[in-house]
Amino acid sequence: MGRGYAPAPLRYALPYQTRLLTVDITPALAVKVTDNLSVAAGLDIMYADLKFKRFYDWSAWVPGSPEGDVSVHGQGWGLGAYAGVNWTSTSKRHRIAVVGRLPVKINFGGDFKSNNMPPALLGLGLSQSSTFNSDMTFPGSISVGYGFDVTDRFTVGFDFKWAANSSHDDLPLQIGNNQPLLGGATSSVFGWRNSIDLGTGMTYQLNENWVLRGGYLFSENSQPAAYYTPVAPSNDRHIFSLGVGWRGKTRGVDLTYAYVWSPVRVVSGNVVAPLDGRLKHEWNVLAVSFTQRF
What is the distance between the alpha carbons of residues 85 and 142, in angstroms, rounded to a whole number? Predict the structure, then answer.
């Protein structure tokens, strides 16, 4: 989620608040084919909640009108699938895994709301609220991982992932009878490109229940300069993470902190001219996950 107040050139061009909440339910079935080879397949059952707000210049319609804001809020479900193969060497010290995921498309339905709309616009068929519809595709991917047990407690690993980000090239924006408020636009264009991730990590088993983790990941920029947007910024990213995990007989809990650093990016030729310039961002991420085995 992000929130900010843009300077005058961008005040009415960008949202001042954005939020995307996702819940991914991933039931899976695994089969051990041989002592060294196992396969698994499962479903991606995903729920998403999307919301953003931006200031709106009503004086562009009715001169002298005070500004207001507009917002959209939608929810939706999507379904995908994944499958993987895991091979372990005879010595049990080497492991290779390959995982493929299908894209997950979520169709959003919800509402559009505005405030301070000049009364004169109501007579033109516009309204303070209307329906909102959109869709978003979470990209498919192919991942390859290699792990090596240096000792009985210490393991290192290397990962590669290719993601089909181009499957989600825009965000449709359909707001019913209020569509003219978008100035003729029917979508927000992203133009994302396919990209790769390269990472390494290590784990140290303190005892049968507790494990420490650390890692580094390079994630390639997938957003061309022409469609760069701070709403969903995508520079090259360097991700450093530390974590701790606990495993019981049937349950597990993991806590991870990640620092995401991006070098300064020079953007020129953007479709929103005021976004040209030297841009930089960084994130701090804290994640908690819970696992239940049956």
Answer: 12
What pLDDT, in 10s, does the model give residues 248-284? 989 999 999 999 998 888 888 887 777 788 877 788 9
CB of 3 closer than 8 Å to CB of 16: yes
Instruction: Give dist(CA 273, CA 251) in Å, integer.
Output: 51
The pLDDT tens digits of the residues spanning 158-171 come to: 999 999 998 888 88
CB 292 within 8 A of CB 253: no
The CA-atom distances, in angstroms, between 135 and each of 20, 107, 131, 202, 268 are 13, 4, 14, 37, 28
Pairwise CA distance, residues 163 & 169, whole Å: 13
This prediction has a pTM of 0.80
Q: Where are the strands (E) in 206-262, listed by range?
A: 210-219, 237-247, 251-261
Residue 277 Ramachandran class (φ > 0 left, ψ -120 to 50 alpha, else beta): left
Q: CA 155 to CA 159: how far, in whole Å?
A: 13
Nearest alpha carbon to residue 139 among 85, 176, 102, 84: 102
